[in-house]
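U., I forgot to send this yesterday:
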Amino acid sequence: MAFVGLVVSEFSSGKSIKRGSLTRTGNAHVRRFLVEAAQHYRHRPTLSAALRERQDGVSQEVTAIAWKAQQRLCKRLTYLLEQNKPRNKAIAAVARELAGFVWALGQVSQPLAT
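Result:
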């Protein structure tokens, strides 16, 4: 999350802690991709026929993480917007969480297709 700049900046001294905007360090292209992907979580997650076809040959562990991410991020975005959080902040929060799920998928070892 910090690698792509989706963490909050912090200014602290002693007992004083002040949090600022996103750091926006790291790869801007990846950050933009994650933010754009996070905007699609306003739609309810479904498993279409095309998605089922694309998932053929993918391990169950990876598809389980992906499905869990879809459900959680959709609920998270809906909740934040219902709490009257600014839309851009809510989407950035979901993009940060999406970066965590992408990292989790990278930790799952899967043989390369030949």
